[in-house]
Amino acid sequence: MSVFGFELLITDGRARSGRISTAHGIIETPAFMPVGTAATVKAMTPEAVAETGAQIILGNTYHLMLRPGAERIQRLGGLHRFMNWPGPILTDSGGFQVMSLAELRTVSETGVAFRSHIDGTPVELTPERSVEIQDILGADIVMAFDECTPWPVEKAAAAKSMRLSMAWAERSRAAFARRPGSGLFGIVQGSVFDALRTESAETLKGIGFDGYAVGGLAVGEGQETTFRVLDSCVPLLPDDQPRYLMGFGKPADLIGAVARGIDMFDCVLPTRSGRTGQAFTWRGTVNLRNARHAEDPRPLDSACTCPACRNYGRAYLHHLVRTGEILGSMLLTWHNLTYYQILMAAMRDAIASTTFDAFATAFDEEQATGDIEPL
Fold it and tell me: What total of structural domains would you count in the chain?
């Protein structure tokens, strides 16, 4: 019988490398989760996502509740079978939509009443219903229902929001019906206020979860503030359980967060950037729309093994992007997700060899050199 668990393998300063065990496989940390909001990672097949090296993907409770419906997915064999993804899945609880769809929802102590962004149909999410939907979907990692506090926000409003999330966390914990190999994560809130983050972390530890996420960041506060909040709240979280920073971020963001003890990440940035002609490389971000690529036969990144870099030149990728061809989105998304997975593997190797600080310094230096020299 599968048992959900986390094994901390080695530390290098505050950076950590570990292993999460789930019903659908092992996740090596630090780990990046491609975002598959509506049971698909945009512009990618599940097989292609697996080829990037991704071990876990993310789905979304709110969106799957509306289309195609959690119960329909259950009748079709659960989310893993429905989308043909055999590995672990983490499901966001719908808490981010409490913020992002503010004009379509009403928040109360009970939960959140939404008007569907699709057709206006009234729907309700409570902690109990959110956890139930995630269970119906068959998620390996279930997230407690919370309210993602917007930015900017006054401290009093952040405190009220955080305490509501903590009440919902307790109800989420009570509603969680553990399946073999599944776990429930609590979410630390409190915006940028250290005292509120401390109160939230201590409350969650008192309730007891299988992992702990840091939410309510990467919403506009900036990298320096994010790192300051992590410096304050991450040391409060248990050493023997995974730590997940939600919705974050650029490659340099990930390195800085790993240096502060974070184990797991998700972000739409690599997939969204791929669809807009932006590619991440070891020498910085490349905009394939730029005319300077129009006659450049060289690969996007000679250190990358993805199909975009292995089989096509910059000139062709530029052509695809400028003409709006779907293949351009596919190839650049594949590249970006591969780059993120290579970056995570490189961080795991650096931690294992206790050379993480040197790796981070070398990364910054290489990024500063800029893109490859003109032909």
Answer: 2
